[in-house]
Amino acid sequence: MKLTFIGADHEVTGSCHLLEACGLNVLVDCGMEQGVNKFENAELPISYADVDYVLATHSHIDHVGMLPFIYAKGFRGQVLATRATADLCEIMLKDCAHIQESEAEWKNRKARRAGRQEEPPIYTMNDAEGVLEHFVPCDYGHTIRLAEGFEVRFTDVGHLLGSASIEIWMTEGGCSKKIVFSGDIGNEKKPLIRSPQYIFQADYVVMESTYGGRFHKSGGDHVEEFARIIDETLAIGGNVVIPAFAVGRTQEVLNYIRVIKERGLVKSLPDFEVYLDSPMAVEATAVFKENRMDCYNEETRALVKKGISPLSFPGLRLSVTSNDSIAINFDTKPKVIISAAGMCDAGRIRHHLKHNLWRPESTILFAGYQAVGTLGRSIIDGREEVKLFGESIEVRARIEKIEGISGHADEAGLLKWVGSFMSDLQQVFVVHGDDEVCDQFAATVKDTFGIEAIAPYSGTSYDLEKGCFITVAKGIPIRRETSEKTKKAAGVFARLLAAGDRLRKVIMHNEGGANKDLAKFADQINSLCDKWDR
Protein backbone atom coordinates (compact mmCIF):
# COMPACT_ATOMS: atom_id res chain seq x y z
CA MET A 1 0.00 0.00 0.00
CA LYS A 2 1.89 3.00 -1.31
CA LEU A 3 0.85 6.64 -1.67
CA THR A 4 2.88 8.98 -3.89
CA PHE A 5 2.30 12.73 -4.04
CA ILE A 6 2.50 14.15 -7.56
CA GLY A 7 0.65 17.47 -7.84
CA ALA A 8 -0.69 20.40 -5.74
CA ASP A 9 1.96 19.81 -3.07
CA HIS A 10 2.92 23.18 -1.56
CA GLU A 11 0.90 24.57 -4.50
CA VAL A 12 -2.77 25.34 -5.04
CA THR A 13 -3.40 23.73 -8.43
CA GLY A 14 -2.70 20.50 -10.30
CA SER A 15 -4.01 18.00 -7.75
CA CYS A 16 -2.79 14.46 -8.38
CA HIS A 17 -1.99 11.51 -6.08
CA LEU A 18 -1.02 7.93 -6.95
CA LEU A 19 -2.25 5.05 -4.79
CA GLU A 20 -0.79 1.58 -5.39
CA ALA A 21 -2.62 -1.19 -3.53
CA CYS A 22 -4.32 -4.56 -4.08
CA GLY A 23 -2.73 -4.88 -7.51
CA LEU A 24 -4.22 -1.58 -8.71
CA ASN A 25 -2.69 1.71 -9.79
CA VAL A 26 -5.18 4.45 -8.92
CA LEU A 27 -4.91 8.20 -9.45
CA VAL A 28 -6.95 10.46 -7.21
CA ASP A 29 -7.50 13.52 -9.40
CA CYS A 30 -5.45 14.43 -12.43
CA GLY A 31 -5.47 18.20 -12.50
CA MET A 32 -3.86 20.90 -14.59
CA GLU A 33 -1.51 23.44 -13.04
CA GLN A 34 -2.84 26.97 -13.44
CA GLY A 35 -1.14 30.29 -12.90
CA VAL A 36 2.40 30.56 -11.55
CA ASN A 37 3.64 27.52 -9.63
CA LYS A 38 6.71 27.46 -7.41
CA PHE A 39 7.93 23.86 -7.51
CA GLU A 40 8.61 21.16 -10.07
CA ASN A 41 6.18 18.24 -10.10
CA ALA A 42 7.59 14.73 -9.97
CA GLU A 43 6.95 12.49 -12.94
CA LEU A 44 4.40 9.73 -12.47
CA PRO A 45 6.52 6.67 -11.51
CA ILE A 46 4.47 4.38 -13.75
CA SER A 47 3.31 4.49 -17.37
CA TYR A 48 -0.02 6.24 -17.97
CA ALA A 49 -1.11 3.07 -19.72
CA ASP A 50 -0.67 1.21 -16.42
CA VAL A 51 -3.15 3.43 -14.54
CA ASP A 52 -6.24 1.32 -13.84
CA TYR A 53 -8.57 3.98 -12.42
CA VAL A 54 -8.82 7.71 -11.84
CA LEU A 55 -11.06 8.87 -9.00
CA ALA A 56 -12.16 12.48 -9.61
CA THR A 57 -13.22 14.62 -6.65
CA HIS A 58 -14.92 17.30 -8.78
CA SER A 59 -14.99 18.95 -12.19
CA HIS A 60 -12.70 21.96 -11.75
CA ILE A 61 -9.81 21.98 -14.22
CA ASP A 62 -7.13 21.98 -11.51
CA HIS A 63 -8.49 18.55 -10.50
CA VAL A 64 -9.41 16.94 -13.85
CA GLY A 65 -7.78 19.09 -16.54
CA MET A 66 -5.01 16.61 -17.45
CA LEU A 67 -7.31 13.63 -18.05
CA PRO A 68 -7.27 14.15 -21.85
CA PHE A 69 -3.46 14.40 -21.66
CA ILE A 70 -3.03 11.01 -19.98
CA TYR A 71 -5.56 9.54 -22.43
CA ALA A 72 -3.34 10.77 -25.27
CA LYS A 73 -0.40 9.07 -23.51
CA GLY A 74 -2.12 5.68 -23.30
CA PHE A 75 -4.52 5.69 -20.33
CA ARG A 76 -7.51 3.46 -21.05
CA GLY A 77 -8.79 2.75 -17.54
CA GLN A 78 -12.00 4.04 -15.98
CA VAL A 79 -12.65 7.48 -14.50
CA LEU A 80 -15.00 7.26 -11.52
CA ALA A 81 -16.86 10.43 -10.50
CA THR A 82 -20.26 11.44 -9.20
CA ARG A 83 -22.98 11.82 -11.82
CA ALA A 84 -22.98 15.60 -11.64
CA THR A 85 -19.17 15.71 -11.91
CA ALA A 86 -19.28 13.46 -14.98
CA ASP A 87 -21.84 15.76 -16.63
CA LEU A 88 -19.87 18.90 -15.81
CA CYS A 89 -16.62 17.32 -17.05
CA GLU A 90 -18.32 16.86 -20.42
CA ILE A 91 -18.46 20.67 -20.59
CA MET A 92 -15.22 21.57 -18.82
CA LEU A 93 -12.85 19.19 -20.62
CA LYS A 94 -14.15 20.04 -24.08
CA ASP A 95 -13.83 23.73 -23.32
CA CYS A 96 -10.30 23.23 -22.02
CA ALA A 97 -9.37 21.25 -25.14
CA HIS A 98 -10.70 24.06 -27.31
CA ILE A 99 -8.52 26.52 -25.37
CA GLN A 100 -5.43 24.29 -25.78
CA GLU A 101 -5.97 24.03 -29.53
CA SER A 102 -6.64 27.77 -29.93
CA GLU A 103 -3.59 28.79 -27.91
CA ALA A 104 -1.38 26.36 -29.84
CA GLU A 105 -2.64 27.72 -33.14
CA TRP A 106 -1.96 31.29 -32.03
CA LYS A 107 1.57 30.45 -30.83
CA ASN A 108 2.32 28.46 -33.98
CA ARG A 109 1.27 31.33 -36.24
CA LYS A 110 3.88 33.44 -34.49
CA ALA A 111 6.41 30.59 -34.69
CA ARG A 112 5.89 30.22 -38.43
CA ARG A 113 6.47 33.92 -38.98
CA ALA A 114 9.63 33.78 -36.87
CA GLY A 115 10.92 30.59 -38.48
CA ARG A 116 10.70 28.65 -35.21
CA GLN A 117 9.52 25.07 -34.79
CA GLU A 118 5.80 24.62 -34.18
CA GLU A 119 4.52 22.78 -31.12
CA PRO A 120 1.31 20.73 -30.79
CA PRO A 121 -1.32 21.54 -28.14
CA ILE A 122 -1.09 19.78 -24.79
CA TYR A 123 -4.08 17.78 -25.98
CA THR A 124 -6.86 17.97 -28.54
CA MET A 125 -10.63 17.80 -28.67
CA ASN A 126 -10.32 14.16 -29.79
CA ASP A 127 -8.40 13.39 -26.59
CA ALA A 128 -11.09 15.07 -24.46
CA GLU A 129 -13.87 13.19 -26.21
CA GLY A 130 -11.87 9.97 -25.90
CA VAL A 131 -11.37 10.15 -22.15
CA LEU A 132 -14.99 11.17 -21.58
CA GLU A 133 -16.04 7.78 -22.93
CA HIS A 134 -14.20 6.20 -19.99
CA PHE A 135 -16.20 8.01 -17.30
CA VAL A 136 -18.28 5.89 -14.93
CA PRO A 137 -20.94 7.96 -13.09
CA CYS A 138 -21.35 7.04 -9.42
CA ASP A 139 -23.86 7.85 -6.68
CA TYR A 140 -23.06 9.42 -3.33
CA GLY A 141 -22.95 6.97 -0.44
CA HIS A 142 -22.65 3.78 -2.50
CA THR A 143 -19.64 1.56 -1.82
CA ILE A 144 -17.99 0.43 -5.07
CA ARG A 145 -15.63 -2.54 -5.25
CA LEU A 146 -12.80 -2.09 -7.76
CA ALA A 147 -10.80 -5.21 -6.88
CA GLU A 148 -10.44 -7.80 -4.16
CA GLY A 149 -9.81 -5.77 -1.00
CA PHE A 150 -10.21 -2.34 -2.65
CA GLU A 151 -13.43 -0.33 -2.21
CA VAL A 152 -14.32 3.35 -2.67
CA ARG A 153 -17.19 5.66 -1.72
CA PHE A 154 -18.03 9.25 -2.70
CA THR A 155 -19.26 11.60 0.06
CA ASP A 156 -20.64 15.08 -0.66
CA VAL A 157 -18.15 17.76 0.41
CA GLY A 158 -20.25 20.81 -0.53
CA HIS A 159 -17.75 22.66 -2.75
CA LEU A 160 -19.48 22.42 -6.14
CA LEU A 161 -22.35 20.49 -7.68
CA GLY A 162 -21.13 16.88 -7.58
CA SER A 163 -18.00 17.54 -5.51
CA ALA A 164 -16.89 14.76 -3.21
CA SER A 165 -14.48 13.51 -0.63
CA ILE A 166 -13.36 10.00 -1.51
CA GLU A 167 -13.16 7.21 1.06
CA ILE A 168 -10.96 4.23 0.16
CA TRP A 169 -10.75 0.91 2.04
CA MET A 170 -7.79 -1.38 1.31
CA THR A 171 -7.05 -4.88 2.59
CA GLU A 172 -3.83 -6.53 1.52
CA GLY A 173 -1.85 -9.35 3.12
CA GLY A 174 -4.09 -9.35 6.18
CA CYS A 175 -3.62 -5.60 6.74
CA SER A 176 -6.60 -3.25 6.40
CA LYS A 177 -6.31 0.53 6.08
CA LYS A 178 -8.65 3.38 5.19
CA ILE A 179 -7.59 6.63 3.55
CA VAL A 180 -9.76 9.67 2.81
CA PHE A 181 -9.03 12.30 0.18
CA SER A 182 -10.88 15.48 1.07
CA GLY A 183 -11.13 17.07 -2.38
CA ASP A 184 -11.94 20.77 -2.08
CA ILE A 185 -13.93 21.29 1.12
CA GLY A 186 -16.96 23.52 0.70
CA ASN A 187 -18.26 26.45 2.68
CA GLU A 188 -21.27 25.78 4.90
CA LYS A 189 -24.76 27.12 4.13
CA LYS A 190 -24.10 27.84 0.47
CA PRO A 191 -27.09 28.43 -1.80
CA LEU A 192 -28.37 25.50 -3.89
CA ILE A 193 -26.04 22.71 -2.77
CA ARG A 194 -25.57 20.86 0.49
CA SER A 195 -23.05 21.77 3.15
CA PRO A 196 -20.08 19.41 3.58
CA GLN A 197 -20.99 15.96 4.85
CA TYR A 198 -18.56 14.81 7.52
CA ILE A 199 -16.65 11.52 7.77
CA PHE A 200 -15.83 10.01 11.14
CA GLN A 201 -13.24 7.29 10.67
CA ALA A 202 -9.99 6.83 8.76
CA ASP A 203 -6.38 5.86 9.28
CA TYR A 204 -5.06 8.51 6.91
CA VAL A 205 -6.38 11.77 5.51
CA VAL A 206 -5.12 13.78 2.52
CA MET A 207 -6.72 17.23 2.82
CA GLU A 208 -6.66 20.58 1.05
CA SER A 209 -5.58 23.82 2.74
CA THR A 210 -6.53 26.52 0.21
CA TYR A 211 -7.89 28.91 2.84
CA GLY A 212 -5.67 27.82 5.71
CA GLY A 213 -4.89 30.82 7.89
CA ARG A 214 -7.77 32.84 6.45
CA PHE A 215 -11.28 33.47 7.72
CA HIS A 216 -14.23 34.53 5.59
CA LYS A 217 -15.80 37.85 6.38
CA SER A 218 -19.41 37.68 7.49
CA GLY A 219 -21.43 37.80 4.31
CA GLY A 220 -24.67 39.18 5.75
CA ASP A 221 -27.77 38.97 3.60
CA HIS A 222 -26.48 38.56 0.04
CA VAL A 223 -29.98 38.80 -1.43
CA GLU A 224 -30.56 42.21 0.14
CA GLU A 225 -27.12 43.40 -0.95
CA PHE A 226 -27.59 42.25 -4.55
CA ALA A 227 -31.05 43.83 -4.63
CA ARG A 228 -29.83 47.18 -3.31
CA ILE A 229 -27.03 47.46 -5.88
CA ILE A 230 -29.25 46.38 -8.78
CA ASP A 231 -32.07 48.73 -7.75
CA GLU A 232 -29.79 51.75 -7.35
CA THR A 233 -28.09 51.13 -10.70
CA LEU A 234 -31.18 50.48 -12.79
CA ALA A 235 -32.86 53.54 -11.26
CA ILE A 236 -30.31 55.84 -12.92
CA GLY A 237 -30.33 54.00 -16.25
CA GLY A 238 -27.18 51.92 -15.86
CA ASN A 239 -26.30 48.27 -16.35
CA VAL A 240 -25.11 45.90 -13.62
CA VAL A 241 -22.24 43.82 -15.01
CA ILE A 242 -21.34 40.74 -12.95
CA PRO A 243 -18.16 38.81 -13.82
CA ALA A 244 -18.77 35.22 -12.66
CA PHE A 245 -17.20 31.80 -13.00
CA ALA A 246 -19.29 29.76 -15.41
CA VAL A 247 -19.63 26.74 -13.12
CA GLY A 248 -20.77 27.34 -9.56
CA ARG A 249 -20.76 31.08 -8.99
CA THR A 250 -23.01 31.89 -11.97
CA GLN A 251 -25.67 29.50 -10.69
CA GLU A 252 -25.50 31.00 -7.19
CA VAL A 253 -25.99 34.51 -8.62
CA LEU A 254 -28.97 33.31 -10.67
CA ASN A 255 -30.51 31.88 -7.51
CA TYR A 256 -30.05 35.19 -5.66
CA ILE A 257 -31.73 37.08 -8.51
CA ARG A 258 -34.63 34.58 -8.57
CA VAL A 259 -35.25 35.34 -4.90
CA ILE A 260 -34.98 39.09 -5.57
CA LYS A 261 -37.62 38.85 -8.30
CA GLU A 262 -39.82 36.60 -6.18
CA ARG A 263 -39.78 39.12 -3.30
CA GLY A 264 -40.10 42.17 -5.55
CA LEU A 265 -37.02 43.81 -4.03
CA VAL A 266 -36.10 45.90 -7.10
CA LYS A 267 -38.60 48.76 -7.17
CA SER A 268 -37.10 50.94 -9.91
CA LEU A 269 -37.54 48.34 -12.69
CA PRO A 270 -39.34 45.24 -11.32
CA ASP A 271 -39.34 43.38 -14.65
CA PHE A 272 -35.63 43.95 -15.31
CA GLU A 273 -33.93 41.58 -17.73
CA VAL A 274 -30.93 39.41 -16.89
CA TYR A 275 -28.59 38.27 -19.65
CA LEU A 276 -26.51 35.15 -19.05
CA ASP A 277 -23.75 35.62 -21.61
CA SER A 278 -21.47 32.58 -21.54
CA PRO A 279 -22.00 29.40 -23.57
CA MET A 280 -20.28 27.32 -20.87
CA ALA A 281 -22.38 28.90 -18.12
CA VAL A 282 -25.54 28.18 -20.10
CA GLU A 283 -24.53 24.51 -20.44
CA ALA A 284 -23.52 24.24 -16.80
CA THR A 285 -26.79 25.82 -15.69
CA ALA A 286 -28.63 23.14 -17.66
CA VAL A 287 -26.76 20.50 -15.64
CA PHE A 288 -27.74 22.25 -12.39
CA LYS A 289 -31.38 22.28 -13.55
CA GLU A 290 -31.47 18.51 -14.02
CA ASN A 291 -32.85 18.12 -10.50
CA ARG A 292 -29.73 16.73 -8.86
CA MET A 293 -31.66 15.95 -5.68
CA ASP A 294 -28.67 14.17 -4.10
CA CYS A 295 -26.62 17.42 -4.42
CA TYR A 296 -29.22 20.04 -3.49
CA ASN A 297 -29.76 21.38 0.00
CA GLU A 298 -33.14 21.06 1.71
CA GLU A 299 -34.38 24.47 0.59
CA THR A 300 -33.56 23.76 -3.05
CA ARG A 301 -35.09 20.28 -2.92
CA ALA A 302 -38.30 21.76 -1.53
CA LEU A 303 -38.46 24.19 -4.46
CA VAL A 304 -37.91 21.44 -7.00
CA LYS A 305 -40.64 19.30 -5.42
CA LYS A 306 -43.01 22.24 -5.90
CA GLY A 307 -42.06 22.39 -9.57
CA ILE A 308 -40.01 25.58 -9.15
CA SER A 309 -36.60 25.80 -10.83
CA PRO A 310 -34.11 27.56 -8.54
CA LEU A 311 -32.31 28.98 -11.58
CA SER A 312 -35.17 30.29 -13.71
CA PHE A 313 -37.24 33.46 -13.46
CA PRO A 314 -39.10 35.92 -15.72
CA GLY A 315 -36.72 38.06 -17.74
CA LEU A 316 -33.81 35.61 -17.92
CA ARG A 317 -32.19 35.69 -21.38
CA LEU A 318 -29.60 33.11 -22.45
CA SER A 319 -26.90 34.34 -24.81
CA VAL A 320 -25.07 31.60 -26.70
CA THR A 321 -23.92 32.87 -30.11
CA SER A 322 -21.53 35.76 -30.76
CA ASN A 323 -24.38 37.70 -32.34
CA ASP A 324 -26.45 37.21 -29.17
CA SER A 325 -23.58 38.63 -27.14
CA ILE A 326 -23.02 41.62 -29.42
CA ALA A 327 -26.73 42.51 -29.38
CA ILE A 328 -26.70 42.93 -25.58
CA ASN A 329 -24.66 46.12 -25.78
CA PHE A 330 -26.86 47.61 -28.51
CA ASP A 331 -29.90 47.35 -26.23
CA THR A 332 -30.11 50.63 -24.29
CA LYS A 333 -32.57 49.37 -21.68
CA PRO A 334 -30.99 49.01 -18.18
CA LYS A 335 -30.22 45.37 -17.43
CA VAL A 336 -28.11 42.87 -15.50
CA ILE A 337 -25.36 41.08 -17.44
CA ILE A 338 -23.69 37.96 -16.03
CA SER A 339 -20.66 36.84 -18.01
CA ALA A 340 -17.39 34.91 -17.79
CA ALA A 341 -14.51 34.78 -17.14
CA GLY A 342 -14.85 35.49 -13.46
CA MET A 343 -11.54 37.37 -13.10
CA CYS A 344 -12.02 39.36 -16.34
CA ASP A 345 -8.83 38.12 -18.01
CA ALA A 346 -10.60 36.45 -20.94
CA GLY A 347 -13.99 35.75 -22.45
CA ARG A 348 -17.05 37.84 -23.23
CA ILE A 349 -16.93 39.76 -19.96
CA ARG A 350 -14.20 41.96 -21.45
CA HIS A 351 -16.60 43.21 -24.14
CA HIS A 352 -19.16 44.15 -21.48
CA LEU A 353 -16.49 45.94 -19.48
CA LYS A 354 -15.50 47.88 -22.58
CA HIS A 355 -19.09 49.07 -23.02
CA ASN A 356 -19.79 49.82 -19.35
CA LEU A 357 -16.63 50.73 -17.43
CA TRP A 358 -16.69 54.30 -18.75
CA ARG A 359 -20.35 54.85 -17.81
CA PRO A 360 -20.78 56.43 -14.33
CA GLU A 361 -24.38 55.17 -14.22
CA SER A 362 -23.30 51.50 -14.58
CA THR A 363 -22.01 49.17 -11.86
CA ILE A 364 -19.39 46.43 -12.09
CA LEU A 365 -20.33 44.00 -9.32
CA PHE A 366 -17.72 41.43 -8.25
CA ALA A 367 -19.09 38.37 -6.48
CA GLY A 368 -16.01 36.17 -6.51
CA TYR A 369 -12.33 36.06 -5.61
CA GLN A 370 -10.03 38.14 -7.80
CA ALA A 371 -6.43 36.89 -7.86
CA VAL A 372 -3.51 39.29 -7.72
CA GLY A 373 -2.41 40.23 -11.22
CA THR A 374 -5.83 39.82 -12.85
CA LEU A 375 -7.81 42.60 -14.51
CA GLY A 376 -10.62 42.12 -12.00
CA ARG A 377 -8.27 42.60 -9.04
CA SER A 378 -6.79 45.77 -10.55
CA ILE A 379 -10.28 47.25 -11.02
CA ILE A 380 -11.23 46.46 -7.42
CA ASP A 381 -7.95 48.00 -6.25
CA GLY A 382 -8.88 51.31 -7.87
CA ARG A 383 -7.37 51.26 -11.33
CA GLU A 384 -8.43 54.43 -13.15
CA GLU A 385 -7.90 53.27 -16.74
CA VAL A 386 -7.78 49.89 -18.48
CA LYS A 387 -6.92 48.82 -21.99
CA LEU A 388 -9.39 46.51 -23.74
CA PHE A 389 -9.05 45.41 -27.37
CA GLY A 390 -6.46 48.10 -28.03
CA GLU A 391 -8.60 50.88 -26.61
CA SER A 392 -8.03 52.79 -23.37
CA ILE A 393 -11.15 52.86 -21.21
CA GLU A 394 -11.53 55.25 -18.29
CA VAL A 395 -12.98 53.57 -15.20
CA ARG A 396 -15.92 55.75 -14.23
CA ALA A 397 -18.46 53.03 -13.35
CA ARG A 398 -19.37 52.25 -9.75
CA ILE A 399 -17.26 49.32 -8.50
CA GLU A 400 -18.85 47.02 -5.91
CA LYS A 401 -17.75 43.77 -4.27
CA ILE A 402 -19.94 41.44 -2.25
CA GLU A 403 -17.93 39.84 0.55
CA GLY A 404 -18.38 36.40 2.06
CA ILE A 405 -19.27 34.43 -1.07
CA SER A 406 -16.82 31.55 -1.36
CA GLY A 407 -16.91 27.94 -2.47
CA HIS A 408 -14.00 27.04 -0.16
CA ALA A 409 -14.09 26.46 3.58
CA ASP A 410 -11.94 28.89 5.56
CA GLU A 411 -9.58 27.73 8.31
CA ALA A 412 -12.46 27.23 10.76
CA GLY A 413 -14.27 25.06 8.20
CA LEU A 414 -11.14 23.06 7.38
CA LEU A 415 -10.52 22.36 11.06
CA LYS A 416 -14.15 21.37 11.57
CA TRP A 417 -13.86 18.87 8.71
CA VAL A 418 -10.65 17.20 9.91
CA GLY A 419 -11.81 17.45 13.53
CA SER A 420 -14.76 15.17 12.73
CA PHE A 421 -12.44 12.15 12.56
CA MET A 422 -12.08 10.02 15.67
CA SER A 423 -8.85 9.69 17.63
CA ASP A 424 -7.59 6.69 15.62
CA LEU A 425 -6.46 8.96 12.78
CA GLN A 426 -2.76 8.19 12.30
CA GLN A 427 -1.57 10.84 9.87
CA VAL A 428 -2.84 13.92 8.04
CA PHE A 429 -1.20 14.96 4.77
CA VAL A 430 -1.81 18.62 3.91
CA VAL A 431 -1.88 19.53 0.21
CA HIS A 432 -3.49 22.01 -2.21
CA GLY A 433 -2.35 25.26 -0.64
CA ASP A 434 0.31 27.93 -1.02
CA ASP A 435 3.83 26.96 0.05
CA GLU A 436 3.84 28.55 3.50
CA VAL A 437 0.13 27.92 4.08
CA CYS A 438 0.56 24.13 3.78
CA ASP A 439 3.22 24.02 6.50
CA GLN A 440 1.37 26.46 8.74
CA PHE A 441 -1.92 24.61 8.47
CA ALA A 442 -0.24 21.25 9.12
CA ALA A 443 1.20 22.76 12.33
CA THR A 444 -2.25 24.09 13.26
CA VAL A 445 -3.82 20.64 12.83
CA LYS A 446 -1.12 19.08 15.00
CA ASP A 447 -1.43 21.73 17.72
CA THR A 448 -5.25 21.66 17.70
CA PHE A 449 -5.89 17.91 17.67
CA GLY A 450 -2.58 16.30 18.58
CA ILE A 451 -2.59 14.46 15.25
CA GLU A 452 0.56 13.93 13.21
CA ALA A 453 0.30 16.26 10.22
CA ILE A 454 2.77 17.09 7.47
CA ALA A 455 2.77 18.90 4.12
CA PRO A 456 4.72 16.69 1.67
CA TYR A 457 6.46 17.88 -1.48
CA SER A 458 5.88 16.35 -4.89
CA GLY A 459 7.75 13.06 -5.23
CA THR A 460 7.27 12.03 -1.58
CA SER A 461 5.97 8.48 -1.09
CA TYR A 462 4.51 6.84 2.01
CA ASP A 463 4.02 3.21 3.05
CA LEU A 464 0.43 3.09 4.32
CA GLU A 465 0.81 -0.41 5.76
CA LYS A 466 3.94 0.28 7.82
CA GLY A 467 3.04 3.89 8.54
CA CYS A 468 6.33 5.40 7.41
CA PHE A 469 7.83 7.45 4.59
CA ILE A 470 9.56 5.59 1.80
CA THR A 471 11.00 8.70 0.18
CA VAL A 472 10.88 12.28 1.42
CA ALA A 473 11.24 14.73 -1.45
CA LYS A 474 12.39 18.31 -1.15
CA GLY A 475 10.71 21.09 -3.05
CA ILE A 476 12.59 21.70 -6.29
CA PRO A 477 11.98 25.31 -7.37
CA ILE A 478 11.05 25.74 -10.99
CA ARG A 479 14.02 27.20 -12.85
CA ARG A 480 13.00 30.12 -14.98
CA GLU A 481 16.16 30.66 -16.97
CA THR A 482 16.56 33.94 -18.75
CA SER A 483 18.20 33.70 -22.17
CA GLU A 484 20.64 36.31 -23.42
CA LYS A 485 18.01 37.39 -25.95
CA THR A 486 15.45 37.86 -23.18
CA LYS A 487 17.95 39.79 -21.06
CA LYS A 488 18.73 42.05 -23.99
CA ALA A 489 15.02 42.65 -24.65
CA ALA A 490 14.49 43.50 -20.99
CA GLY A 491 17.37 45.97 -21.16
CA VAL A 492 15.92 47.69 -24.21
CA PHE A 493 12.51 47.91 -22.56
CA ALA A 494 14.15 49.46 -19.50
CA ARG A 495 15.56 52.12 -21.82
CA LEU A 496 12.06 52.75 -23.13
CA LEU A 497 10.71 53.17 -19.60
CA ALA A 498 13.54 55.56 -18.81
CA ALA A 499 12.68 57.55 -21.93
CA GLY A 500 9.07 57.72 -20.74
CA ASP A 501 10.20 59.07 -17.38
CA ARG A 502 12.33 61.69 -19.13
CA LEU A 503 9.38 62.71 -21.30
CA ARG A 504 7.24 63.32 -18.24
CA LYS A 505 9.98 65.48 -16.70
CA VAL A 506 10.25 67.50 -19.91
CA ILE A 507 6.46 68.00 -19.93
CA MET A 508 6.49 69.23 -16.33
CA HIS A 509 9.46 71.51 -17.07
CA ASN A 510 7.41 73.23 -19.82
CA GLU A 511 4.48 74.05 -17.58
CA GLY A 512 3.54 77.68 -18.14
CA GLY A 513 4.96 77.79 -21.65
CA ALA A 514 3.26 79.43 -24.62
CA ASN A 515 -0.04 77.77 -25.52
CA LYS A 516 0.96 77.50 -29.19
CA ASP A 517 4.19 75.64 -28.30
CA LEU A 518 2.46 73.36 -25.78
CA ALA A 519 -0.28 72.48 -28.28
CA LYS A 520 2.36 71.59 -30.89
CA PHE A 521 4.23 69.48 -28.31
CA ALA A 522 0.99 67.66 -27.35
CA ASP A 523 0.22 66.94 -31.01
CA GLN A 524 3.70 65.47 -31.51
CA ILE A 525 3.31 63.20 -28.46
CA ASN A 526 -0.17 62.08 -29.54
CA SER A 527 1.08 61.37 -33.04
CA LEU A 528 3.86 59.22 -31.59
CA CYS A 529 1.39 57.41 -29.33
CA ASP A 530 -0.96 56.72 -32.25
CA LYS A 531 1.92 55.14 -34.15
CA TRP A 532 2.94 52.81 -31.30
CA ASP A 533 -0.46 52.07 -29.67
CA ARG A 534 -0.94 48.60 -31.11
Note the topology.
Blueprint (H helix, E strand, L loop, with lengths): L1 E6 L8 E6 L2 E7 L22 E3 L5 H4 L2 H6 L5 E5 H32 L10 H8 L2 E4 L5 E4 L2 E7 L7 E9 L2 E7 L22 E5 L13 H14 L4 E4 L5 H15 L9 E5 L1 H10 L9 H8 L10 E4 L2 H7 L6 E5 L9 H8 L6 E4 L8 H6 L4 E4 L2 E4 L3 E4 L9 H9 L7 E5 L3 H15 L3 E2 L6 E3 L4 E4 L12 H26 L5 H18 L2
Parallel strand pairs: 3-4, 4-5, 5-6, 10-11, 11-20, 12-15, 12-16, 13-14, 13-15, 16-19, 20-21
Antiparallel strand pairs: 1-2, 1-22, 2-3, 7-8, 8-9, 9-10, 17-18, 22-23
Helix pairs in contact: 3-4, 3-7, 5-6
Helix content: 25-40%
CATH topology of the largest domain: Metallo-beta-lactamase, Chain A
By CATH reckoning, the class of the largest domain would read Alpha Beta
Task: Give the CATH superfamily of the largest domain.
Answer: Ribonuclease Z/Hydroxyacylglutathione hydrolase-like
Radius of gyration: 26 Å
How many domains would you count in the coordinates? 3
How much is the average pLDDT?
91
What is the 3D shape?
globular
Number of strands: 23
Q: Give the CATH architecture of the largest domain.
A: 4-Layer Sandwich
**Strand percent estimate:** 15-25%
Distance between the termini: 58 Å
Structural class: alpha/beta
Q: List unreliable stretches of 5+ residues.
A: none
Spatial order of strands in the largest sheet: 6-5-4-3-2-1-22-23
The number of distinct helices, counting runs of at least 4 residues, comes to 15
Tell me the major beta sheet.
Answer: 8 strands, mixed
Describe the 3D structure.
Helix 3 packs antiparallel against helix 4 and helix 3 packs antiparallel against helix 7. This protein has about 525 residues and is α/β, with parallel strands linked by helices. Helices cover about 35% and strands about 20% of the residues. It has 15 helices and 23 strands.
